[in-house]
Structures are given as C-alpha cells and as structure tokens.
Amino acid sequence: MAKWDEGPKTTMSPRAALSLAALGIVFGDIGTSPLYALQAALGTDGLAITGDHVRGVLSMVFWALLLVVGLKYVLLVMRANHGGEGGVMAMLAQLLDSDADAPKRRATPWLIGLAVAGAALMYGDGVITPAISVLSAVEGLEVYAPQAKDWVLPIALTVVAVVFVLQRFGSGMLGVVLGPMMLVWFGALAAIGLYQIVLEPTVLHSLSPVWAIELWLEDPMQAFLLMGAIVLCITGTEAMFADMGHFGRPAIARAWWWIVLPALLITYLGQGAVLLSANEHDMASRAASPFYAAVPDGLVLPMTILATIAAIIAAQAVITGSFSLTRQIIQQRLLPPVRVRHTSHHVEGQVYLPAVNRLMLIACLAIMLGFRTSEALTDAYGLAVSGMFVVTTIMLAVILHRRFKWPWWALVPVIGFFGVIDLLFLASNANKFLTGGWLPLAIAGAIIIVIWTWRRGSLALQRGRLEDGLKVGKFIEHIAEGDITFAPGTAIFLSGDPDVTPVALRKLQRHMPVLPDTIVLMHLRVLAVPYVPEKSQVAVQQLNDHVWRLTCRLGWRDDIGIPELVRAAADHGLPVDSKATTFWTRREGVGGGRQAGLPLWQRSLLQFLLQTAPSAADLFDLPPRRTMEIVVRGRA
C-alpha cells in the first residue's frame, strides 16, 4: 500500500514564517467570503428571516467549512498530492504514473477528459475572482462618497492591473508582504465576531447540526437553494489545493487549523449574533449587510479600508493557482510550452508564467468592463467552484482505489458522502446559469477547445515524427556506411529524447549532401533539486568520429544558458568553439491536404498555437545569429 505523501519539505524559513506567507497567498479568497457569503444566504428569495433560519444557515456554514475544507481537502485530498504538487492535473499525473507502474491497466481517456474539465473550470473561476473581489472592495467607496460612483470602475481596473504586475515578484516575496496583512484581517474578524458573541452567546447553539437538519426537514426546496449561497463560504478551496506546491501541505494545514478556520467561524457566529439580538424588523435590515452590521460604529471606516486590502489580496490565490495549474498542464503536454520563471531558491512550486499572467489580466479587465459591478458578477460565482468539487472527488476516489489500495467497503461511504455534498452544491448553482453562471462555463469551454486541439494535433504531429525518427545507434551506422561529405564546423542539435535522432538532424541528412564535421546531440535534463553543482552539470560522450553526446543536468532554479553549458562542455573534452558553433532547432508547422485529420478550423487553431508558442531559441536563449531553425510541416 502506498504511503501518504506529506508534501515537500523546505528549509526556506521557520514553520511559522512559512505558514504566515501561505496565509497571504493561499487563503485570500476564502478569507474574504465573510464580506458577502452570509448576506447572500440570508437574502435567498422566498425564505423568511427568522431566528431558526439564521441558526440553520450558520450551522450549514460551519459544517461546510469543517467537512469540505477541513476534512475533505486539508486532511484527505491534500495528502493525495503528486510530489508535493496539488490540483486536478497533479492528481492526473499521479494516476498516469500509477498506470505506468501497472502496464496491464490502461490509462482511460475519461480520466484525462475529467481532469481537463476540472482545470478549465478553475480557469473560469480564476478570471472572475480577481474581478469580483476588487470590484466589491472598491465599491465600498460609494458608502462614504456617493459622488465617487463614476470613479469606482476606473479605480478597480487600475488596482487589478497593479495586482497582476506584482506577480513577477513571486508568491514567496508577496507572501512575506501579504501574510501579515491577512493575519491582521483574520485577527480583526475574530475580534469583532468575539465581541458580538459575548453580547449574544446563544448563537453558539448554531454549531449543532440539528439546526441545519431541521432547516432541511422544514423546507427542503429552500434549503436546497441555500446551498448555492453556502458554497460562497468555501470558494478558494480548490485554489488552496492548487497552490499547495508553493508552500507545502504542512504550512497550509497549520494556517488553516490555527488561524483561518477559527477566525472564519467566529466572524460568521458574530454576524449571526447581531441578527439574533435584533427584533424581526431590524433583523431583516441587518441581513442586508450582516458583515458591517457586526462592526461597531467607530470601526466601520477602518474595517472598510482593511476589507478593501483583504479583497485585493484575495485575487492572489487564484492567480498563483493558475500558474501552478498551467505548469502542470504543460508538463502533461496538453498545452504549448511557455516561459516559466522560478521565483524561489528553495521551493520549486513557486513559479511565475508571464504569458498566463497577461492573458488573465486581459480577461479580468474585459469581464470588469462588460459587467461593470460586483452585483452583476455574483451569479457567475459558485458554478465553476462546485463543478471543480465534483471533479476532485471523482479523481480522489480513483487515487484512493488505485494508488492507496483503499477497499471498496471504506471507499464507497467516504466518497459517497462527499459526492452527495458536491452534487448538491452543483445542482443548486445550476439555476444561476442564465443570470451569469454561463460566464465561467464559456471560459472553461474555450480552454477545453484549446487543450483538445493541442492534444489531438500534437499527437498527429508526433506520429509523423515517430515515422521520421531514428535511433541514434542506427543513425551512426547510416552515416558510417553512407556516402556523406563532412565539412569543417560544429553543429549542436537539441534532443528531447537522448536515444532518438533529432528530427532537425534527420531532415538535414536527407536533404543536404554535407553534414558538419562535429555533430553534438545535446539533451537537457531538469532535476527535482534547485541547483546542480557546476562539476556535475555536463557529461560528454563520443559516439564515433563525428558524433558526440552532450547531456546537461540542471536544477529547476539554475539560470544557465545553453552557450554557457557548451563552454563548460568544451572544458570536459567536447571539441567545440563556443563562439563558432551553430545551433539547430525544429519548429512545428501544420500541413493540409485531403488526408488531413483535423477540420479546417481546428488546423487553423493548431497553427496559431504553434506560431505563438515560444521557439526553442527563445526558451533556451540561443544566440540568434548562430541559430538555424528547420520548420517541419506535419499532417494533422
């Protein structure tokens, strides 16, 4: 039976400091849910605001936080990580590795499709969360200066742009700054909530599940509709899982159990206490904004400012989660490669993807310009989140069965319990489709089309490469036996597979009668360590009089260009002049013809993706004047 994975161990900082940094990056989304979650639940159409109603809602909120976030994700899902990485794509990678260990079991396509759907839903939610968080925060200006209403949208657009620009500094750096801010925020939530609980201690009875059960028994339909609002209390949970690689499970778990959960629980109880202490008329008016109703009059302005800062920080969780998710998708070869910048010297999961950052910024600005207010975006919230809950539960069931060998008698009740909760969330949010729920689904649909096109097209192009490929040993035999002229010079061919002849070299051999006198097959390997000592970075092997193999081993944080590696290889016996060496790379192209497998629109999209993807010369910083690129047009 496989052993539970506790996530990556790090010596970057003391445990408390790492948990504090995680507090600022991971919990921003769920940490700002008290601003609107209880208000949305109490404002459900057709449900009277009564004391029993308030207690029932508080009971549902408490058990959602405890069961879904604490029990399901922190204690169960996050332990089923893949080498410290979280998210649905990391779960898929774990299952694919499991299938590789068991050749008789075929990796079913539905698992890949399910993971892609979950990832696409997270993108849909990811571009909405920064928009609605910042809009809802900046709209607080209208409370104190109604004449500033026309400035809300321009200010919000500017703030969102600044948030995305700051991503280049990395989640670790931002966590150091934002962590203390979120600690102050959670402390303020707990202090105000505790103050109200002391005034109305009977609200503590709401922790009993009896109130939630009675609410369901009294009016099942209204309780069902409430689930669409209750899910707002746990938005950001999937991003917390996806951000796991940035800080590791232990740091996130400590922050959740010791800071986030107590603060959220106390603030929700405090909001409920304010309502329970009011008469029927005041209860209805306070339910319109229970968060600010719980804040003492003298602290309204400071809490508004602090809430604005916290809401801006909330955008961080989904943005950094999207970086981790995209990197995992690329590693599964479901999207074109992009530049990945590691922003930490110790934690591999802390990455920054400039291309993804730009696309998310454009999408967020477009959504804000289209919807203009946070109220208009409210119904778009929740549907993507609940869909991701369902996907994660299904993937977890497969992992527990295949990887951790859980017996069916233990698996069925656990997965069935969480599955029922997830399906209730999803079904309750489905009625919001026409009023905004379509937005994350539309974004997810576009992402699925891109991934599907890239996957299908790259497989078709790969089949062509396999037909054209040749083992290195066979290639050496061919050039030894064939009538080939060698001219003075050195050419380096980048090789993805050290045992297969690069396609660029094969094309050159077929169509040119002359090959360079020195041919270097260069293979890069990135190891799961931050740095590799210089003496261990290069290994040189002579295969025959003309062909050499150069293997380079780098850490994920090593910032070394290929020209520098070639100079180091020369010191290890490789007969090259680094200033006179030519680099040969391959760029894919899409051919047409009657035998093309993809429809015209999909071939056009594939060609666009291939053209916009960074070339090998760009990814590896090859000298442009000494780099030759061969375009290989394959049929797709």
Brief descriptors of the model:
single chain; 636 residues; alpha/beta; 6-stranded mixed beta sheet; two-stranded antiparallel sheet; 8 strands; elongated
Structural commentary:
This protein is of the alpha/beta class and 636 residues long. The protein folds into two domains: 15-89 and 103-385, Amino acid/polyamine transporter I (Up-down Bundle), CATH 1.20.1740.10; 466-635, no CATH class. It has 27 helices and eight strands. It has helices spanning 15-26, 28-31, 37-42, 51-74, 88-101, 109-138, 141-144, 152-165, 171-199, 209-218, 220-230, 237-242, 244-247, 249-276, 280-287, 290-293, 300-331, 354-371, 374-377, 383-402, 408-430, 433-468, 472-481, 503-511, 562-571, 600-612, 616-619; strands at 341-342, 351-352, 485-494, 514-527, 538-542, 547-555, 582-591, 627-635. It has a six-stranded mixed beta sheet, with helices on both faces. Strand 1 and strand 2 form a beta hairpin. The radius of gyration is 28 Å and the shape is elongated. 45% of the residues are buried. Mean pLDDT is 80; it is low at 1-13.
